[in-house]
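User: Some background: our group keeps a shared notebook of sequences we're curious about, and every so often someone picks one and asks for a predicted structure to add to the entry. Today it's my turn. The entry only has the sequence so far, pasted here. Could you supply the structure so I can complete it?
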Amino acid sequence: MSRQRSMEKILASEYVSIGELVRITGSRYSTLKFYTEEGMLPFEQEEEKMTRRFPREKAITRINEIKELKRQGLSIPEIKEKITGK
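Assistant: Of course. Here's the predicted structure to add to the notebook entry:
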């Protein structure tokens, strides 16, 4: 039996893993990891070694926002500045 949660369960969860975000948004794992490391994706982490948990709705909204700004031709630094104010 697969350890993956069903899409139904994922979409009902307040928090999701980065792998689940990949499934929900159709984004690449490496892309989401990059956004996370750049401080563009909100997440929570109990301790440094613990898995990062992403607030599902906020994260999906943010990913869609980034995709839209990329489509408009903005660079990653421009997008980062626009969404984080930094």
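Suggested note for the entry: The beta strands are 15-16, 54-55. The chain is about 55% helix and 5% strand.
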